[in-house]
Amino acid sequence: YARDGWNVWATYRDLANTIADDRIRHAALDVTAFAQFDALRAQVGAEPIDLLVSNAGIGLDVGTLGELNFDYVQRMLSVNLVGALKLVETFVDNVAASQLRRIVLVTSRMGSIESNLSGGHYGYRASKAGLNAVGRSLAIDLYPRGVAVTMIHPGWVSTQGGGPQAPMDADQSVASMRDVVARMGNHETGNFVSYDGRSLPW
Length: 202
What we know:
This protein is α/β, with parallel strands linked by helices. The protein has helices spanning 34-44, 70-96, 122-142, 170-183; strands spanning 8-12, 24-28, 51-54, 102-106, 148-153, 191-194.
């Protein structure tokens, strides 16, 4: 987006990981630290936000019943679900004041209840299924304000969380998701889709 001339705010849990690009404004944000949302809101001010992307997330839990790490389960819910809702609540007025008025929640097909045929991954599945439910409610509540909300599964991507065996790199995933975002309309708000635009089962 920055390469295309958009004004971009990028947030980082650790500012040491910032991307060296003068077209991007950088800010600290740990989505589990609510005071940081207030600080970021003060930085952004009343600036309209055409596209708000909630992308913070932590990966799969692998414990089985009797061996679950509940501290990690709680952290997944805090980051993947509660943090995303807090982000939207903080900046919804900025989005509503923009021309495009779009919100994207980066979710996972593992949040699909209907498609869960293998079990396990309790915390991760719950956090993403909950995120999908939140996104659907946001779509309903924000429709009168002209704000469209979409939940997008980015695919299996070769990142720190996805691992080197993943079939897609981040650039491929992002390019595909950008195409989906470009086609988003208010009549499609509340959809749960894959990176290529295919509808996913709830």
